Amino acid sequence: MDVVVCCFNARAKQLLELLLDSGFQKYLKWMTNKLAGNELAMIQQGTNVVSYASINALAIRKIFKKYDKILKGVRDKVHLATKFGVSFVGGKLDISGWKI
User: Fold this and answer.
1) Which helix (H) or strand (E) segment is 89 a member of?
2) Which residues contact 67 (CB under 8 A, 6 or more apart)?
3) How far is residue 95's CA from residue 61's CA, in Å, rounded to a whole number?
4) Which H/E stretch holds residue 61?
5) Which of 6, 88, 89, 97 has a CA positioned 20 to 30 A from the CA of residue 46?
């Protein structure tokens, strides 16, 4: 499992660096990948990363919604909100503005 996570992290880091680079560095990386034939693989992996992140966001929202129903006390909800960085509004966990 660690090998999969390390490979995923390395590829995500490459995609992020490619997106954040500007100018000549971005052009050089693009040309290097183009010559190596990695462009389609990188695009596919980028699509996989985006779908993975959206699935995780949906799962986290469902988990928080369930915890919001289970937790009875305001103190518990405030603790959960501060621990995960979500807002606590009107007695409920508000995860609509939570950036994943």
Assistant:
1) strand 87-89
2) 80, 93
3) 7
4) helix 39-70
5) 97
Looking at residues 60-85, what average pLDDT do you find?
71
Angle separating helix axes 39-70 and 2-20, nearest 10 degrees: 110
Residue 68: is its pLDDT beyond 80? no
Average pLDDT over residues 82-99: 62
Q: How far apart are CA 83 and CA 93, in angstroms?
A: 12
Q: Are 37 and 62 in contact (CB under 8 A)?
A: no
Q: Count of residues for the chain? A: 100
Strands 92-94 and 87-89: what pairing? antiparallel
Residue-wise pLDDT for 9-63, tens only, equals 777 777 777 777 777 777 777 777 666 666 677 778 788 888 888 888 788 778 8
Give the pLDDT confidence score for residue 100 in this predicted structure. Answer: 46
User: Which residues on neighbouring strands pair with residue 87, listed in sequence order?
Assistant: 94
